[in-house]
Design brief:
It comes from Pseudonocardia aurantiaca. InterPro entries: PIN-like_dom_sf (IPR029060). The termini are far apart. The chain has helices spanning about 10-15, 20-35, 40-50, 55-65, 75-85, 90-100, and strands spanning about 5, 35-40, 70, 105, 120-125. The chain has a five-stranded parallel beta sheet, sandwiched between helices. It is built from six helices and five strands, in the order E-H-H-E-H-H-E-H-H-E-E. Helix 5 (about 75-85) packs across helix 6. By secondary structure, the chain is α/β, with parallel strands linked by helices.
């Protein structure tokens, strides 16, 4: 079984903006070890809107790494995410992690307080 991690919007921003050496270490270790990184499309859109223009090329690099996959927001996916309730960008990341059985990496674990995390390990960036 191939393992991986799901990066939420805050983790994507932390990597692309260079705010976290831990996020950088996670991404480059994933590349070296062949660990899949799932990027929910809603997290990518949110990160793009929050990042400075000078950080957009770093996000582009992340999106095109051989270990990165994007979980697209199809109509069926949108219904499944909507059924979870709460902030949709967080629900999308949570659903990706739950379905894959992978850890959910976040730079802001508080965004998941009060949310049903059954079956999901939240891995906060230090």
């Amino acid at each position: 079984m191939i393992g991986g991690r799901v990066l939420d919007a805050s983790a994507v921003v932390a990597f692309a903006a260079g705010h976290s050496v831990y996020a950088a270490a996670l991404v480059w270790t994933a590349v070296e070890e062949g660990i899949v990184l799932t990027l929910p499309s809603t997290a990518v859109a949110t990160a793009w809107s929050k990042l400075r223009e000078k950080d957009h090329p770093v996000l582009e690099v992340l999106l095109h790494l051989p270990v990165s996959i994007t979980d697209d927001l199809t109509a069926a996916r949108a219904r499944a995410i909507g059924a979870l309730g709460g902030e949709q960008v967080n629900a999308h990341a949570l659903l990706c992690a739950r379905e894959r059985g992978w850890a959910l990496v976040t730079a802001d674990a508080s965004r998941y307080s009060g949310v049903d995390l059954a079956g999901v390990e939240v891995e906060p960036l230090p």
